[in-house]
Predict the 3D structure of the following.
Amino acid sequence: MEIETKAMGTVSIVEKQIIELEEGFYGFSQYHRFALVDAKENPFIWVQSLEKKDLAFLSVDPFLFRPDYELDIDDSLLQPLALESPSDVIVLSLITIPADGGSITVNLQGPLVINKKNNRAMQAILTDPRWQTKHDLLAEASVNRGVQ
């Protein structure tokens, strides 16, 4: 299937790239279907709304630059994902690139958690004080020798 994207124009996707967020993202609760589209630059992934062409989030695997990253999420909150094993989970963190040229930040407090077996997803909110909504991505990467 072909979809229109904010960043890359028309792209082809397959069904397994589509995720369903029952409650949407915080602040965008009316949008539930998204496609995971590889960005032109590795290791980034676009989370593109299938319902609104102009709604897309750049994301990255947080473990690439924060090997100490931990998700402490109550099992009851994860029930809608129907996870059978920790190996079924994909975690992505959303990136903000300010228009004013400020620091590129990554949200480690509100990760996207995906069950790769059934493509159900949710945005979790972590309460661990180590994880904030605005971590400087380049600083984190250089300290931890990850994304560059």
The CA atoms of residues 107 and 133 lie 4 Å apart. Helices lie at 75-78, 137-144. The chain has one domain: 2-144.
